[in-house]
From TrEMBL:
Top-rank lineage group of the source organism: Eukaryota
This protein's UniProt keywords: ATP-binding, Membrane, Metal-binding, Nucleotide-binding, Translocase, Transmembrane, Transmembrane helix
One GO cellular component term noted in the UniProt record for this chain: membrane
Species: Blastobotrys adeninivorans (Yeast)
One GO BP annotation of this record: copper ion homeostasis
UniProt key word Iron: no
Protein's name according to its UniProt entry: ARAD1D15114p
């Protein structure tokens, strides 16, 4: 007779020995086999009388968890199991006592490098131990957690049972836990510990990690409605250790946190939840880590159609066949038909297509597809839809209650004549005391509305209050900077509801059975309050989702499918120039999903279709509409060797074949999306003012509400008010005064103040993106951009085209060296430089074939190059310098005569840049001039016009250039910059100093910070990066270097300087809209709160009831958002004549 017992925690040889020893002690046992891989114990008995249940009990006493006996699964888990988690913890302790491996792991006594037989070693995927410094991240899916207390329980039990765990944290919303360990074998032990504490746990990831200086956590934060909410979230998070930076986007409901240690990541969700908001982690990125030479790609695959236990092994075996190129992160199994792996693409051998084909070849039943993780925007949009749906359900329910409430409470109470039979019937007392039928009816209708319709306000308010009283929260915050809009809404409905309950109790105590009952309650106010609050919240949520469409629209530019072409003759390593490209013929194209494309593939872009990737044209020529990225509406011709970008549209009449250079995540489009996303998270200084105001708004409103109640109550009790003011039946002046207090709670709205800036900035960011202007600096960039006093320009590549300068003049002074040799030396030296003038020298010297060898080339920042040159025919060696006059002077050369100086002066007056080559041989003592070159860079057609327009707008213009003064002033005079506003001959770091000098000495015309001038710097090169950082507003030209772009607040994707004026127009329009929004929100509160408090009540006894106050509150925030949305209709005056980027959706 054969019996099988499936256990959970077999993982080493020690376990196997313990099991065999325990089972062999029973009579009639002939043989015991233990399979560590399958977690299975097979027992062969002599007779059928083996007490298998007793065997299972013995194994449990040894610390093993029994899953099934003879393939009969135990009963499904019930709530009673949770109560017995202590027993499972005891089993876990017993198991460690019997398992040498677990005991040694817990005590940290494992000998380094020792390998015991473990589950992970016997599975299809083998993990190999690293060195002592290697750390591993274990990620678990943890079920059955419901609240923060659950996360604390799991965290504490893991830390207590496994003190050698370096870091451990639990994410309640994502139902996950993360452990950082230095021994991967601890991963299974942690899993069992969590299970033993009463929660389900599955290890889903075990990967090696490198230590990092920081982590960037992207997450969605639900429940935020205004700046006071973001302040509450920020306070909750910054109280945690190692939180370095917090960026919160109220509009999109997203946030980015930069933390110094991984242990803090798991605490973010708990802190935010304790503050009353919902948290969902989307992504965690390590900061300051080194990138690999070849970009790897991580893919999640879903494999459907597996039908036996061998199928997962076969799939894993396919990936193992690729060797070290493919690393399996999560192996596949029948229970979890998903496999996650990382590989380094190497077309055509190692591609996602070849991997899919091999997996499909295992069985015709397999259906393999790529599983895409949701992006931050998709997660945020999903949460918004969920939030809007929840609000819609509650609004629908409340609407059903509002109708009978209106009929009974408004029509029956006020509109029908007093002699009407229905009104009299509703006024009669019923059941107890003098409680009228009307009061009972409104009570039964208001109660579900209060507890269901308004529950979202109460829940968040309670969490906010609990969060305030967590240890470590300053008393100042607890009493002077607490609460949000949710608290005000909750207080308004709560005071109305429970004061009505009190009035109901008073009426029940009164003697008046079968007579006319009391009708004074605020139950109808609870219903109408909730109704209007929900309408406002739903409209607010919907409107805000419309302001944040810039990133989602940009993301939609990329098509979902591409036309893949195959060319068996292409050898990527041999194709180095355009001439080689023409030798290859491309065949038919096959339509494939975009995610099956790799770097190095070839795709065909047909007329009218969008390019899905960044790449280089290998065959054909056509025109591309790049308006969606750069704002340039004029189609650009792209032929062989030219770059094309994802999201651009083939607007020509012919197809082109493109070699892929960047796919998803590395394209220009992805960079734009990242810049826009990060820019939207950066707040303007004006937003910080709103944040400070809203942080104290709730305490102020609460105080005003209480003061209002006290004042009216004191006036009433003192007899200062006329008797006819008291128009209620029960409760006296206490209840009568309460109406004003409730109205103050309800009408006050910090949302309008909090939304004034972020909604306008989001629309402004999207508007700028339509014109190819990326606001990397976010709100601060817009605010500073609207106040620019001085605009500084670099010369080369900014005021001039900077593309390919040409050598226009050359003079040689041969003395023992030929002109051809001098050209060769100059060309070889400039091949080590990225300066635009270097390209001109290289192009000039390309034809030279002189036998010269150049070596030991070094760059002198901002001045030129130094090197040594050797004539290979006779071994003559020269020391050589190549650069500007400053480098020549500093090198000690005295060889400049009047002829040299006259030539250089003439060239510089013509606006040309000069380059001098000087050299000396071993026999010579000083450097002598061997050659002089002049190069010209074409002035941009629009430069003069833009400078003129800036002057019209009272913006001073300056030029800061590394070129010589004569050349710089010559260019300045052509574009209209005054000669005394030219700073020339400066090094890169000196440019930054000059910008700082202008900030201190320039005239502040627009109220800059601390009364100083706001200075903008426009540049495109690496040498402009320091000055872009130093400026208040750094503007990088799109054709410039990556470093310049990363240093700038604004990036102009189109190098046309007219878009500089568009940037200023949009910045000013956005700031003006923010001011308008602020003005309206402040006026609303300044006027509305006194009216709600009853300042005009003595005049005709006009009182704003809580119901109408809630309607006004809802309309206030909606009106602010609507005002921001109207900014979408704005058209910059500078854009006239410049057709902006068409709508991204229509451009496709």
């Amino acid at each position: 007779m054969i019996h099988t017992i499936k256990l959970k925690n077999i993982h080493c040889g020690s376990c196997e020995s313990t099991i065999k020893e325990a089972v062999s002690g029973f009579e009639n046992v002939a043989h015991v086999n233990v399979s560590i891989q399958d977690d299975m114990v097979t027992i062969q008995s002599v007779t059928s009388e083996l007490p298998v249940m007793e065997v299972a009990k013995t194994l449990m006493d040894k610390g093993f968890q029994v899953v099934s006996i003879d393939d009969n699964a135990p009963p499904s888990r019930s709530w009673l199991d949770v109560l017995h988690f202590r027993r499972r913890r005891r089993l876990d302790k017993v198991h460690r006592q019997n398992c040498e491996h677990c005991k040694a792991a817990e005590l940290g006594q494992e000998e380094h490098g020792r390998r015991s037989v473990s589950r992970s070693e016997l599975s299809t995927v083998t993990f190999v131990d690293g060195d002592e410094s290697q750390k591993f991240r274990a990620v678990y899916v943890i079920g059955d957690m419901t609240c923060a207390a659950c996360t604390s329980t799991v965290t504490n039990v893991v830390k207590n049972e496994h003190p050698q765990v370096l870091e451990f944290g639990v994410d309640l919303l994502n139902k996950s836990g993360t452990a950082i360990i230095d021994d991967k074998r601890l991963a299974d032990a942690i899993q069992e510990t969590i299970r033993g504490s009463g929660y389900s746990a599955d290890l889903v990831e075990l990967v090696p990690v490198e230590t990092s200086k920081g982590y960037k956590v992207s997450a969605t934060v639900g429940g935020m409605t205004c700046a006071s909410c973001s302040s509450a979230v920020k306070r909750a998070v910054t109280s945690l250790p190692d939180v370095e930076d917090v960026s919160i986007d109220v509009i999109n409901g997203t946030a980015v946190f930069v933390v110094g240690s991984k242990s803090v990541i798991s605490q973010l969700g708990e802190a935010i939840e304790d503050a009353g908001y919902e948290y969902q982690q989307v992504d965690v990125q390590e900061l300051l880590t080194a990138s690999t030479a070849k970009a790897s790609r991580t893919v999640n695959l879903s494999v459907e159609g597996m039908f036996c236990q061998h199928c997962p092994d076969n799939v894993n075996r396919v990936l193992k066949g690729y060797g070290d190129v493919v690393v399996i992160d999560n192996p596949i199994s029948l229970d979890s038909p998903f496999i996650k792996f990382t590989y380094t693409p190497d077309p055509p051998v190692v591609t996602i297509r070849s991997i899919l084909d091999k997996i499909k070849a295992v069985s015709p039943e397999f259906k393999v597809s790529i599983v895409h993780p949701k992006s931050l925007e998709e997660r945020a949009a999903e949460y918004k839809r969920k939030e809007q749906l929840a609000l819609a359900y509650r609004l629908g329910f409340t609407t059903l209650v509002v109708i009978p409430t209106f009929i009974i409470g408004i029509i029956g109470m006020d509109l029908l004549p007093s002699g009407n039979s229905f009104r009299q019937y509703m006024h009669e007392s019923m059941w107890v005391g003098s409680v009228s039928r009307l009061s009972w009816a409104l009570f039964f209708m208001a109660t579900p509305v209060y507890f269901y319709g308004a529950d979202t306000f109460h829940t968040k308010a309670i969490k906010e209050i609990i969060g305030l009283w967590r240890p470590g929260v300053p008393w100042k915050v607890r009493f002077l900077m607490f609460g949000s809009m949710n608290l005000l809404m909750s207080l308004g409905t709560t005071v109305a509801y429970f004061s009505s309950i009190a009035l109901l109790a008073l009426a029940a105590q009164a003697d008046g059975h079968n007579s006319e009952g009391y009708t004074t309650t605020y139950f109808d106010s609870v219903v109408f309050l909730t109704f209007f609050l929900l309408i406002g919240r739903l409209l607010d949520s919907y409107s805000k989702s419309k302001t944040s469409s810039a990133v989602s629209l940009l993301s939609k530019l990329r098509p979902e499918t591409v036309l893949l072409v195959e060319d068996q003759n292409v050898d990527n390593d041999k194709i180095t120039d355009k001439n080689e490209i023409h030798k290859h013929k491309f065949g038919n194209a096959v339509e494939v999903p975009f995610d099956l494309i790799e770097v190095g593939d070839f795709i065909r872009v047909t007329p009218g279709s969008a390019c899905a990737v960044d790449g280089i044209v290998f065959e054909g020529s056509t025109y591309f509409n790049e308006s969606s990225l750069t704002g340039e509406s004029r189609p650009i011709e792209r032929g062989v060797g030219a770059q094309v970008f994802a999201g651009t549209v083939n607007s020509g009449n012919s197809s082109v074949v493109v070699k892929v250079t960047a796919t998803e995540g590395g394209s220009l489009l992805d960079s734009i999306v990242a810049v826009v996303r990060e820019g939207q998270l950066r707040r303007a200084p004006v937003e910080r003012v709103a944040e400070k105001l809203t942080s104290v708004f709730v305490p102020i409103v609460t105080a005003l509400s209480v003061i209002t109640w006290v004042i009216w109550l004191a006036l009433g009790l003192s007899g200062a008010l006329p008797k006819h003011y008291l128009d209620i039946e029960i409760g006296g002046w206490v209840v009568w005064s309460l109406q004003f207090s409730i109205t103050v709670f309800v009408i006050a709205c910090p949302c309008g103040i909090g939304l004034a800036a972020p909604t306008a900035l989001f629309v402004g960011t999207g508007l700028a993106a339509k014109y190819g202007i990326l606001a990397r600096g976010g709100g601060e960039a817009f605010q500073e951009g609207s106040k620019i006093d001085i605009m500084c320009f670099d010369k080369t590549g900014t005021l001039t085209e900077g593309g390919e300068p040409q050598v226009t003049d050359q003079k040689y002074y041969a003395n023992g060296i030929t002109e051809d040799e001098l050209q060769r030396i100059a060309g070889e030296m400039e091949s080590h430089s990225s300066h635009p003038l270097g390209s001109a020298i290289k192009a000039m010297a390309q034809a030279s074939e002189a036998p010269i060898e150049v070596y030991e080339v070094s760059e002198v920042s901002g001045k030129g190059l130094k090197a040594k040159a050797k004539r290979t025919s006779d071994g003559t060696v020269w020391e050589v310098i190549l650069g500007n006059e400053r480098l020549l002077a500093e090198s000690g050369s005295t060889d400049i005569n009047s002829e040299h100086q006259d030539t250089l002066t003439l060239w510089k007056r013509q606006g040309k840049s000069v380059i001098v080559l000087a050299l000396k041989s071993n026999e010579e003592g000083t450097l002598r001039i061997g050659a002089m070159f002049a190069a010209a860079d074409k002035l941009r057609d629009e430069s003069a016009k833009v400078i003129k327009e800036l002057h019209k707008r009272s913006i001073d213009t300056w030029m800061i250039s590394g070129d010589n003064e004569t050349t710089a002033k010559a260019i300045a005079s052509q574009v209209g910059i005054p000669a005394d506003h030219v700073i020339a001959g400066v090094l890169p770091q000196e440019k930054a100093d000059k910008v700082t000098w202008l900030q201190k000495t320039g005239k502040a015309l627009r109220g800059g910070q601390s009364g100083r001038a706001i200075v903008a710097m426009v540049g495109d090169g690496v040498n402009d990066a320091p000055s872009l950082v130093a400026a208040d507003v750094g503007v990088a030209i799109g054709s410039g270097s990556d470093i310049a772009m990363s240093s700038a607040e604004f990036v102009l994707l189109n190098s046309n300087l007219n878009y500089l004026l568009v940037m200023i127009d949009i910045s000013r329009a956005t700031l003006n809209r923010i001011k308008l929004n602020f003005g309206w929100a402040l006026v609303y509160n300044v006027v509305g709160i006194p009216i709600a408090a009853g300042v005009i009540y003595p005049h005709n006894n006009f009182r704003l009831g809580p119901v109408w106050a809630s309607l006004a509150m809802a309309l206030s925030s909606v009106s602010v958002v609507t005002s921001s949305l109207l900014l979408k209709l704005y058209r910059p005056r500078a854009a006239k004549g410049l057709q902006n980027a068409s709508n991204p959706e229509s451009s496709q």
